[in-house]
Design goal:
Layout (H helix, E strand, L loop, with lengths): L16 E13 L7 E8 L13 H6 L2 E4 L3 H4 L1 H4 L9 E6 L10 E5 L3 E5 L2 H12 L5 E9 L6 E9 L3 E6 L8
Parallel strand pairs: 1-9
Antiparallel strand pairs: 1-2, 2-7, 3-8, 4-5, 4-7, 5-6, 7-8
């Protein structure tokens, strides 16, 4: 497997650790809507080829990991979004929020020591909530942050969700893809 768990550490119902290979990157991104966004943090990579892995990469699906934005961060939790507790690479805690009046499958995303940063997006939470309710561990880590410019406050977060008690980002130098 190109990315993933070390032998005996794949996420299971009893715990474990998922390890993913990443490269650190800071850059401007130009979304299709014509805006400009500063993105800084970790990008998932295939260590064998050096190619970036998108959200729908088969290697990620094989591990069961998901990449998702932290919903509601800017609108409802700007104080936490502005703290160092949600910098790229920082661990996040997932907490079921079954009494949420807007979504019975809600999973809150907490930044240890800082408070709630937002929620797992509704579609993803609908998939994960039954597993969390059944006792299967899921962990999360901040992959990237979004800002209007490098000097402006954060406007959003992207996280990696893993079906294990722990997820580790293995930082390496990105090799250029082979031609």
């Amino acid at each position: 497997m190109a990315i993933g768990a070390e032998p005996g550490e794949r996420g299971t119902a009893t715990g474990g650790r998922v390890i993913v290979d990443v490269a650190f990157e800071e850059r401007y991104w130009y979304p299709d809507d014509g805006g400009v966004v500063w993105v800084a943090g970790y990008q998932l990579v295939d260590p064998a080829s050096g190619r970036y892995l998108g959200r729908d990469a088969p290697e990620l699906a094989e591990l069961g990991v998901r990449v998702a934005g932290v919903a509601g961060a800017a609108a409802h939790h700007a104080d936490v979004l502005g703290s160092d507790a949600v910098a790229p690479g920082r661990r996040l805690e997932l907490r079921r929020d079954p009494d949420n009046e807007h979504d019975p499958h809600a999973i809150a995303v907490d930044a240890p020591g800082a408070g709630q940063a937002g929620w797992v997006p509704r579609e993803t939470a609908a998939e994960l909530a039954p597993q969390v309710d059944a006792g299967r561990p899921w962990s999360a880590v901040v992959l990237r942050e979004r800002r209007d410019s490098p000097r402006d406050p954060r406007t959003g977060l992207t996280m990696l969700l893993a079906p294990a008690a722990d997820v580790e980002l293995r930082v390496g130098a990105r090799r250029p893809p082979r031609a």
